[in-house]
Amino acid sequence: MNVAMITQSYYPSLGGVTEHVYNLSQALRRLGCKVTIITSGPDREPRDSVIRLGINVPFPINGAIVNVTVGIGLIGKVKAVLRRGNFDLIHIHCPLEPTLPLAALMAAREFEQPVVGTFHMAARISPAYEVFGRILRRYAQRLSVRIAVSETARRFAMRYFPGTYLTIPNGVDFKRFNQNKGIPHLQDGHVNFLYVGRFDPRKRVPTLIRAFKKVANQLAECRLILVGSGITYPQCLAEAGSLLGRRILFAGKVPPEQLAAYYHSADIFCSIPGGSESFGIVLLEAMAAGKPVVGSDIDGYREIVTSLEEGIL
After folding, report:
1. What beta strand segments (E) does the chain contain?
2. Which residues contact 240 (CB under 8 A, 6 or more apart)?
3. Which DSSP category does 88 fall into?
4. N or C: where does the chain have the smaller number of CB atoms within 10 Å of the terminal CB?
5. In this predicted model, what pLDDT tens digit does every residue of 141-167 receive, in sequence order?
6. pLDDT at 285 over 80
7. Distance between CA atoms of 310 and 156, rounded to whole angstroms?
8. Residue 98 burial (CB < 10 Å; 0-12/13-18/19+)?
9. What number of other Cβ atoms are within 10 A of residue 81's Cβ?
10. Contacts of 50 by beta carbon, 8 Å cutoff, 6+ apart
């Protein structure tokens, strides 16, 4: 089967959607499918399996910074890619979000292939959907199958786009994260706390740093390792203060092939976002590496962790 996977978020951008698309495409390839990822951003490393259209522009929404694709004639460009690719299936992630996913859904109307839409978002309310929901519901009818990555995501999607959804949770490559190879210089007897993710306001990384500093006052041999980047990075640097470089380490963006090593260098994984999360793929990654997790007591996380059983919320 020849599959077109359309997503606004993909490497080098970090996040749950990126990881979902990467894992799903790899799994489909192992099953013998051909997968082409159609995404945005400059083509720094051209590959046959990744086609990039337009450029990424960061845009704040729901306490996070998301990618929005900007480019002239996106619908026509997507049509041209779909026509050349001769795909059997078109799979659009976040299909009703501007701009690339919605452009792809509009372009797909001219083709007979089935169109799958996976809904990743969860929020208390969407101002854009409140205003444009009636128009977008017409485009939603083009979807042959609707998938939600969690019950939290399904409830949010149902609020604006009623219909039938399959709930298929995010998955991770267990073999990838269970390799049991850490980073030597981080395995020096310290108790390592690890965070992996974007430095978005919703992720509350400065709050995590403040919490760690309280732990560090009581536990001499401990360290906080922060993997990722984002808009609150300067605030996080300032919050680290005198512990920067000694007890609090900023690893920056880590290539996918190196990420498992950070999990295996950790003793405890922490992620304490506020607001809404549709899932918590980093929790799965940490658990696949055999690490205990501490997370926020929010809907998306409750679908993965029962507090005091798989972890602590």
Report:
1. 2-6, 34-39, 50-52, 55-61, 64-70, 89-93, 115-119, 145-148, 166-167, 191-196, 222-227, 248-252, 268-271, 293-295, 311-312
2. 209, 248, 250
3. S
4. N
5. 999 999 999 999 999 999 999 999 999
6. yes
7. 26
8. middle
9. 18
10. 10, 36, 37, 39
Please check whether residue 262 is in contact with residue 225, taking contact to mean a CB–CB distance below 8 angstroms: yes
CA dist 17 → 122, 185, 280, 282 (Å) = 12, 31, 11, 11
Q: How far apart are CA 109 and CA 114, in angstroms?
A: 10
Q: Which of 21-25, 56-60, 91-95, 153-157 has the lowest mean pLDDT?
A: 56-60
CA distances from 252 to 21, 197, 219, 227, 259 (A): 21, 10, 25, 5, 11
Phi-psi region of 62 (alpha: psi -120 to 50; beta: other; left: phi over 0): left
Other CB atoms within a 10 A radius of the CB of residue 95 amount to 27
Given a cut of 60, whether residue 46 has pLDDT beyond it is no
CA atoms within 13 A on the CB side of 119: 28
**Two tokens, residue 284:** 């799965």
**Owner of token pair 């906080």:** 224
In whole angstroms, give the CA distance from residue 78 to residue 27. Answer: 24
Output DSSP code: residue 97.
S
Q: Which two tokens stand for residue 254?
A: 């880590």
Determine the 3-state secondary structure of 264 from DSSP: helix
List, in sequence order, every residue forming a beta bridge with 118; answer none if it has no partner.
Answer: 93, 147
**Residue owning tokens 């919605």:** 102
Tell which residue, 222, 177, 197, 219, has the closest CA to residue 273. Answer: 197
Q: Residue 11 has which token pair? A: 């490497």
